[in-house]
Recover the amino acids of this structure.
């Protein structure tokens, strides 16, 4: 035991110790750098803190903000504003479906691939999309306010449930 702790042996092992210290510092620095530049900390720590303080699932805040902007357009009660809100809601759902990694080139294909995750009736979403198509392509189409509210409600439910799954 005295041989291992002898000053002569420790003096000879000093260069090897320094190399190992350098490796330790390098790997410690690399680990800290990668933690800072990766999304690991965000997903493991910040996500939980955000959910705790906001009382809503992570990411729902930005969705709620965008949805509030869409619904703000309907405050006037004008038919044209409801039409515009339906078009924006359809675009928002399309974007959520694309970002969710669902496959398909058209809205119907994307909605079909996400159909299992939509708690709302899949037919309601397709009817809402058909209403959107009527609004966009038929200039003489008259939109009932009750239908518009039902369509927007279907879009809202689908957007929130797909983005949170």
């Amino acid at each position: 035991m005295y041989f291992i702790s002898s000053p002569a042996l420790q003096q000879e092992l000093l260069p090897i110790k320094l190399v190992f210290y350098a490796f330790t510092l390098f790997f410690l620095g690399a680990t800290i750098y990668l933690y800072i530049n990766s999304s690991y900390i965000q997903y493991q720590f910040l996500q939980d803190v955000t959910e705790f303080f906001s009382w809503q699932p992570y990411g729902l805040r930005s969705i709620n903000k965008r949805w509030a902007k869409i619904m703000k357009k309907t405050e006037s009660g004008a038919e044209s504003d409801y039409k515009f809100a339906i078009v924006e809601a359809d675009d928002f759902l399309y974007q959520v479906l694309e970002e969710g990694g669902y496959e398909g080139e058209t809205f119907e294909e994307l909605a079909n691939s996400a159909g299992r995750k939509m708690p709302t009736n899949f037919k309601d979403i397709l009817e809402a999309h058909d209403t959107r198509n009527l609004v966009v392509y038929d200039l003489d189409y008259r939109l009932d306010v009750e239908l518009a509210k039902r369509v927007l409600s279907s879009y809202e439910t689908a957007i929130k449930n797909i983005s949170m799954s």
